[in-house]
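Can you give me the bound-state structure? Components:
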Amino acid sequence: MVSSSTIAATAQRRPGRVRQGRRVADRTLRIACTGATVVGALVLGSILVMLIVQGVRGFTPALFTNPTPGPGSEGGGIANAILGSVVLTGIGILIATPVGVMAGTFLAEYGRGSKLAALIRFLNDVLLSAPSILIGLFVYTLMVRPMGTYSGWAGGVALAIIAVPVIVRTTEDMLRLVPGTLREAGAALGAPPSTVIMSVTWRAASAGIVTGIILALARIAGETAPLLFTALNNNSWFSANLMGGVANLPVMIYQFALSPYPNWQGLAWAGALLITATILALSIIARLVIKPQISR
Amino acid sequence: MPALTESIALGRTRSATARKAPSRSLDTLFRTCSYGAALLVLLVLAGILGSILYGGWPAFREFGFGFLTSSAWNVGTEQYGALVAVIGTVASAFLALLIGVPVSLGIAVYLTQLCPGWARKPVAMTIELLAAVPSIIYGMWGLFVFAPLFARYIQIPVSNLVEGMPIVGTLFYARVPSGVGVFTAGIILAIMIVPFIASIARDMLDQIPTVLRESAYGIGCTTWEVVRHVLVPQAAVSIIGAIMLGLGRALGETMAVTFVVGNANRLSASIFDPSSTIASRIANEFNEADGLQLNALMALGCILFVITFVVLIIARLLTRRVQAA
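Here's the bound-state model for the whole set.
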C-alpha cells in the first residue's frame, strides 16, 4: 500500500509519462509471461507431433487384430494389450463409481458440517495426489502376495483406488452446486432424504457427476506404475483369465519402448499414440460438458 | 436458513419422514452405504501406510538408521541403503520447482492479465491438456526427443566448457554425456507440474476481486506493479500451497523419471550424471526382487510415503480454504 501511494505521486508529477524503469519492468514481465505460455504450448505440440510421426506408421489393421509378437520376431499387433486395458479400466471404473459417488454424496449431503467429513474430505484430497506407485505397492501386499500371482483383478483394484478420489471430489463439488431450495421442495412433498438425494439432487447434478467419472477414466487409462506390480503383462493372446497377468497398453508401451527390437519399439509408439489420443479426447469431452470454473 | 434447510433435508424433523414409514429402512441403508463409502477412503489411506510399513519393516530392522545414510545397493551382498535414491528424488524435484515455478506463474499471470478474452479459454485448455498426457508419454518424449537434443546442444558444450573448473566443473561436468540424468529428470518433471501449478495459481488470481485490480490500474500502475503489489500479496499463501502440491507430484512421479533419470546407483555431485529416485528404483527392481531386497524397496516406499505426505498435507492446508468452492 505504501508503494502504491508513491506510484500515485509519481504519476501525478509527470502525467502521461511512465518512468523508464517502470516501463522496462512492465515490458519484461509481459514478454516473460507470454514466453512461458508459448513454451508450454510448444511442448504439448512437440509431444503430439512426435507421437503422430512415430506412431502413425504402425496404424495398420494388424495392430488391432493381432496379439503382441515375441521378442525379435516381426509383425504382430497390440490387440491383447488394447483389450486388456479396456477390461482393467472397466473393472477400475465399475468399482470406483459406486464408492466414489456414495462417498461424495456423504460429504455433500450428510456430513456437511461434521468433523469426520472434514477429515475424510482432507484425506481424499491427499489421496488424489498420492504417488500412484505407492498404491501399486499397497495392492501388491493386499492381493498379489496372498493370491500368489499377478492378476487382472489386482490391476483393476489398483486403478479403482486411483479413480475413487477423483470421483469423490467432483461428485461433492457438483452436489454442492445444487440449490438447497430443490432439496426443500423435495422434502416438503414428504420424500425421505434418500429419495430426495436420488431423484432430485443426483438428477440435478448428473452431468457433473458423469464428467467426474470421465475424468477418472482418463486418469486411470494411462496409469503405468501401479500396474507394474499388479496386472503386469502377458504377451500371449488375452485369455479372459483375470486370475493371471493381463496384458495392458501402458506396461506394454513401457517394456516395448525400452526393448532393443525395432518392431517392438514401433508397436510401442503406435500404442502410445492410441492411448494419448484416447485420453486427450476423453478430457476434452469432460471439459466441454462441465463449466470451466469447476473443471478441476 | 441453511440450518433449517439441512435439518429438513437430513430428515431430522420427525414429521417429514414419519409419513413414509415403509421407506425408512431403505433410507437408513442409503445413509449407511454413503457413510461406509466415505470411511473406505480413510481405510485405504491407512492401508497404504500399514502395508508399506509392514513390508519395509524387516529392512529397517536389519539396517536401522544406517538405511537412511548408506549409499550401498548391492543385491549380491544384501547391503541396501536409501541415500542415493533419496538424494536423487529430492534433487530432481528441487530442479523441477526451480524451472517449473517461474514458468507456471508466468502462464497464470498471462492467462489472467495479458491474454485477450477470445484466446483465454483455448490457451487455458491447451495448458491443462498437458496435465492429461500420461506420464509414460512424457518419459518417451524425454528419452527419445529431448535427451538427444539436450546431450548434443547443451550437455557436451557445457561439459567441455566447465571441465576442470572448481565447483562449477563438478556440478555440470558429465562423464558420459548421454542426455539422461538428474537434470533431464528435473526438466521433464518441471513440464509435468507446470499445468497443475499454473491452473491453481490462475484460479487464485481470478478470485481476487476485480475492484482491487481496477483501482491499482486507475492510479496509473503498470501490469508489473499490479502483479507485484496487488496480486502477489493477495494470493501468496495459496500459491505457495499450489507449489507444494506440484512438489508432491514431482517427488512421487514414477514412469517419466524412470525413462530419463539413468537408473544408476552412484552418488555424484554432477547434476548431469545418471542417478535414480525412490520411485524409479521401485519401478525398476520390484518385479525381480526377492527377500531382503523386496523389503528394502518397500522401506524406500515408506520413506517416499512420509516425504510426499508431509508435503501434500502442508499443500492442502494452504490451499484448502480457497479450493473449497
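A couple of observations. Chain A has 13 helices and no strands. Chain A has a mean pLDDT of 84.
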